[in-house]
Amino acid sequence: MSPEQAIAAALLVPLLGAAGVLLCRRRPNVREAVTVLATLLTFGAVASLVPAVTAGGRPGLELFEVLPGLPLAFAVEPLGMLFALVASGLWILTSIYAIGYMRSHHEGHQTRFYACFAVAIAAALGIAFAANLFTLFLFYELLTLTTYPLVTHHGDERARRAGRLYLGLLMATSIVLLLTAIIWTYAVAGTLDFRPGGILAGRADAPLAIVLLLLFAFGTGKAALMPFHRWLPAAMVAPTPVSALLHAVAVVKAGVFTVTKIVLYVFGLDLLRTSGGGEILAWVAAATLLLAAAVATVQDNLKRRLAYSTISQLAYVVLGAALANGTAALGGSLHVAMHAMAKITLFFCAGAIAVTAHKTEVSQLDGIGRRMPITCGAFFLASLSIIGLPPAGGTWSKWFLVLGAADGERWAMVAVLLAGSLLAIGYLMPVVVRAFFYPPPAAGEGHGEAPLLCLLPLTLTALGCVGQFVFAEPLYRLLAPIAGM
Amino acid sequence: MPFPVDAILFVFLLTMAVVIARRQELFSAAMLTGLFSLLSAGLFTLMDALDVAFTEAAVGAGFSTILLLGALTRTTGLEYQQRRPRTRPLMIVFSTGAALIYGTLDMPHFGDPAAAIHHHVTPDYLARTPVEIDVPNVVTAVLASYRGYDTLGETMVIFVGGVGVLLVLTGRWRWRRRVR
Amino acid sequence: MSEHLPILQVVVPLLAGPLCLLLRHRLLVRGLATAVPLACLTIAGLLLHRVQQVGAISYHIGGWAPPLGIEYRIDLANAYVMVIVSAIAAVVMPFLPGHMGSAMVRRREHLFYAIFLLALAGLLGISATGDMFNAFVFLEIASLASYSLVALGRHRRALVAAYSYLIIGTIGGTFFLLGIGLMYQMTGTLNMVDLAHRLPEPMSPGTPGSRTVLVAFAFLAVGLSIKLAVFPLHQWLPRAYAHAPSAVSAFLAATSTKVSYYLLVRVVFSLFGAAYVFDALKLDRLLLPLSIVAMFAGSTAAIFQTDLKRLLAYSSVAQIGYMTLGVSLASVTGLTGGLVHLFNHALMKGGLFLAAACYGMRLRSSRIADLAGAGRLMPWTTAAFVTGGLALIGVPGTAGFVSKWYLVLAALEQGRWLVAVLVVASSLLAVAYVWRVVEVAYFADRDAGAHPIKEVPPLLLVPTWILIGATVYFGLRTELTAGVAEAAAGVLWESLR
Amino acid sequence: MKQPRLLREEVILRVVSKALVPLILLFALYVQFHGDFGPGGGFQAGVIFAAGMILYGLIFGLANLQRVWPPRRVELGIGLGVMLYAGVGVATMVRGGRFLAYGALDPHHPVHGQHLGILLVELGVGITVASTLIAIFYALGRVPPEPRG
Amino acid sequence: MSASILGLWNYWAVIVLMMTGLYIVTARDNLVKKVMGLNIFQVSVIMFYVSMAKVRGGTAPILVEGEETVLYSNPLPHVLMLTAIVVGVATTALALALVVRIQEAYGTVEEDELVRIDDDDG
């Protein structure tokens, strides 16, 4: 399979999968088989691109020109490769988990769920492979629209309100800020192609660069920079696999990926540094990082706590990009993968607990680790990764981030990064401590471990977190070019 | 200065328009509308527009009046007393009128043979009609031949109007009284 | 025969109208009415192709050379408009038998089709002509036909709507006629090319010059703005479109305002020229705020409607604001945006009104609240509505995005970043009114007591989806829309002077 | 039209109209075919013709008029007149001229062609106008289908 | 100034008539009255055109055989106004047809009454 075909396959297979799901809506088993098959094929197609990209190749696919000078085009570079791997890889696990979760929860509208999920993956891969801002924006909006039915899955008033907030906030930021920034960039630079070193460098003066940078950063509502973060906690009403999709697989990752990609390929690190835009963005990210983490510590609802944790962790990635040096950018990019693996594990665990023990609040979890040791063990491992402690993958990304900040002698940022990790300990460890060391409530409850289809994926992802620590080398080699190493 | 027939006609016309505006007895207002058309036909004759006068007399004074009377027999002969103040229409009317009068300021004067319209295109009509069309009435020549397509359009207007009336009046379908 | 294409474009539907009266038989009339717009579309396509290759075509009706006779003058701009108008007619026409059948007395159907074809002929005639007075005549043909069509709505309010449409439309038409008269007075000609040459130049550049010409322009512009429903002269539009039969609304919303827009643009750019209108009169200072107010006021009004068709109608007021914004930006890019939006809005509003017609047929109502459960019971119609709604919002991948792209680009080119932000911000209001409908259709449950509904037959679905599909297609492939619009904007911009 | 039943009983009106209607029709024909020389033409002729018919209908009753001109035939006339007009245009195209270039009707004597064209075209206008006005009169004069109010 | 009054008073008189018509259309509530106003408005516009066509000392544009020096008034506005009259009567007919239907459907032809009835309908 040539790289072009692989790109096309990666984008088309999920769509065909969605069509297949719709066609097989009357036979759930076949439908789920189609989903799993699509996930595997997609991942295969994405993975087949890795050797070429690692070897320095930049395979591309140009479809046709939509507007003059604006083709619908795809090109694979390291950052996009990483994001695509994360999205398509975690899709496999999420699908398996979803089958277990949706069935044991007796959720309705399952066909719509699987179909929209598949289209959302296609949109995420479109974002990952986009060769220009225009293509990226197209798939960015597609992702918003296809995840909307997932967020409002239950269709009750609460879900609809969350959906309104989700759609309203993401649409508003993307249309008003992001689109303006894109067209402005086009008017200034005459192109929207992603190019190493940036297209604005030399064309935009410092004030314009700062304005554009802020428009881009806040316009990418999916990156959940404060104050445009509220959609994320609200979207917690959706079923757990959807939360996994939002927090780990596609949506927020698409957001921070977009910011990073824009910083690297539209502005370029030099412009970011010289214009002073990086400094401003860094402080915005730092504020989000600390505030969200602080809010997370006081949340009792487990999923809400995880949601604020996500907001905080996303700010790490943005901060990595904003620090405007190669090492930090590398750290930020690595964190996309590390956080994805860890956060999906945490959500799987939260979902497994909800399905099995019907508990959603942290304060209800006393002693639950004795009944569900595997789930809670996985939760512990993933927590380590989020905090940034060995033996979990998060160690590396945080290490490079701190290193990058120290390289630039940005000591305040070093402090912020470390404080973030401390706060992470503060909001994650109590869960583990309660689960394992607090006595269970007097009235014994008749439940054991989570269903196998839930347990299997979360075990795998937890092991994945460790794997990311041990085998970080390939990821580093893949990403090295963007850091100029 | 000759006897100002046209000025007197204008005074009549204006009086009539005001009476029509104020008259609540609609049958007589309709008759006055017909008379208004007839008088304007007289004015058109004074201004050498024989064809227009003829048509206005036949259509405006004749047919339109029949239409109005016919409509009145099927509706009501009496207009209500209006109480609401009418500032908006007055504003519209005054601003439109002021704009038009402002626009006339740079216009060639009434009857001025030097006006642009008498020196472009029209001389061609007058000169070429005897040769190319060979009918004495230049209006007919322009109407039916030089600008015959407009007349086709005009016939189409009548066609649409007629068919529209038929459709509105005789296509009998039921209306629903409430939006549901 | 090919040299007669310009006149055939108009005469074919013009002849087909009376032919309906002679044929009378229902099936024959329906067949004729379906075939004619297709023929028009073919001719328009050929003309567009021809114009792209050889430039403007002039057809001397009656064999008399202009300015003596009437001329049909086809260039890129009006060929483009004629393609849109006949394409919409070709799509809407097959929709009509299924839609109107129940609403009308059977033996009167041929009158309906005659009027419909004449409306089409009128709109095409306005577009094709190179003569101002001829444009007026065809404007009146199209208008009279529209009034009658609007009156056919099912509720008695349609009659009042048609009446007030008639009154305001006639005032607009008469203003237009007065404008022509004043212009004629100063030049002695009615031919557009000739007019553009002979309109007196202002003594010093940057001043309005002759007061008569100024007032002539004002009356032409106001008259056409009434027909186009430019804010604040738009009040007739929501009433007329809300109460007309839905398929008629689809046709009128997609074509009638578009043709008025074309004529306005023709007058502004080709006759008077951008230098006069923008440098001397500073029209943009008036039109730009009005357009923006229209965008926001129309969309805001749409949000608060309880009736689906009224919602769409108010949305049209807002969308017309986008089109006039394109004019007021006073640049080729802006005009391109306006012309692209002309095409795109025709597609999406046509498709949305057809979807509303599908709903109306099954639900026997156009209230938004009655759409409950439609998402599940009428999935295809609802999907069409959602897609069309996304296009209204301007989501990338739909035609609406392309329009907004050009408008924002034009605003930024001139450094009017506030205008750019307002354009994109107004799309958010579209999100609000579209999503109100979407939520009801998908999440609300249908009353247990309500009569059962099911999906409409393919005969109605296919035309709807052709238009909706086209909004997606032209969101991605823009050679025909943006490409032609850009060239047409160039042609218009150069002016006939 | 206001009160048809009463009018019908007026003897003087009946007698006068009986004499007047043929004269009106004759005048209409004169206007129709003499428009080239003096004022008038198809449009005015059509109006006058229709006026004569309407007078007849008012005095002698709608039913009598409709026996002469059944509504269906009138409706046909509306279409026919326009078709005649446009048909002349098509004929000129078929004969190699531009649309409505009457000269093409008689290639050897373009002026004759003009005369012929104008004659036919004016006739078309007359037919359409007369039929339309009569049709509108019928439609307005119809007894309302449901009780008013 | 006096020259322009003498030269333009004709137009101004026409404009005053025209505005009277426009006032009736916009200000009166009775639908039939509005149509009458529309008639006056349109007839005045026709007067405006016909005034433009007039040439002082001219005669109707019906050619006199053999005379070369006759001054004719301008025929073109006359032609245009014949069309305008037709447009006017077609509009009037359609408007009145609608009025008749409105009377049947609502039982009134007063605009404010119609608005009130529609508001009551909800």
Q: What would you say this structure looks like, in words?
A:
The complex is a heteropentamer of chains A (485), B (180), C (497), D (149) and E (122). With 485 residues, chain A is an all-alpha fold. Chain A has a domain at 301-485. Chain A has 21 helices and two strands. Chain A is globular, with a radius of gyration of 21 Å. The two termini of chain A are 30 Å apart. By secondary structure, chain B is an all-alpha fold. Chain B has a domain at 1-81. In chain B, 70% of the residues lie in helices and 0% in strands. In chain B, helix 6 crosses helix 7 (148-170). Chain B is globular and about 60 Å long. Chain C is built from 20 helices and two strands. Chains in contact: A-C, B-C, B-D, B-E, C-D, C-E, D-E. The interface between B and E is large, with 94 and 89 residues.
CA-based shape of chain D: elongated
Rounded to an integer in angstroms, the radius of gyration calculated over CA atoms of chain E is 20 Å
Distance between the termini of chain E: 57 Å
Number of helices of chain D: 6
Helix content of chain E: over 70%
The residue fraction in helices of chain D comes out at over 70%
| Overall number of strands of chain D | 0
- Sheet/helix structural class of chain E: mainly alpha
**Which fold name is given in CATH as the topology of chain E?**
Helix Hairpins
Q: What is the string of helix and strand elements of chain E? A: HHHH
Report the CATH architecture of chain E: Orthogonal Bundle
> What integer is the average pLDDT of chain E?
88
Strand fraction of chain D equals under 5%
Question: Summarize this, please?
Answer:
Chain B is mainly alpha-helical and 180 residues long. Helix content of chain B is 70%, strand content 0%.
Keywords:
heteropentamer, C: two-stranded antiparallel sheet, 2% strand, D: 6 helices, elongated
Compile the SSE list and pairings.
The complex is a heteropentamer of chains A (485), B (180), C (497), D (149) and E (122).
Chain C: H1 5-23, H2 26-54, E1 57-60, E2 71-74, H3 76-92, H4 95-100, H5 109-128, H6 132-150, H7 157-187, H8 192-198, H9 211-228, H10 236-243, H11 246-280, H12 283-303, H13 308-328, H14 332-363, H15 374-377, H16 379-393, H17 399-413, H18 417-443, H19 458-476, H20 479-494
Antiparallel strand pairs in C: 1-2
Helix pairs in contact in C: 1-2, 1-5, 2-3, 2-5, 3-5, 3-11, 3-14, 3-20, 5-6, 5-11, 6-7, 6-11, 7-9, 7-10, 8-11, 9-11, 10-11, 10-13, 11-13, 11-14, 12-13, 12-18, 13-14, 13-18, 14-16, 14-17, 14-19, 14-20, 16-18, 16-19, 17-18, 17-19
Chain D: H1 4-8, H2 11-34, H3 42-60, H4 62-68, H5 71-94, H6 110-141
Chain E: H1 2-27, H2 31-53, H3 75-106, H4 111-121
Helix pairs in contact in E: 1-2, 2-3
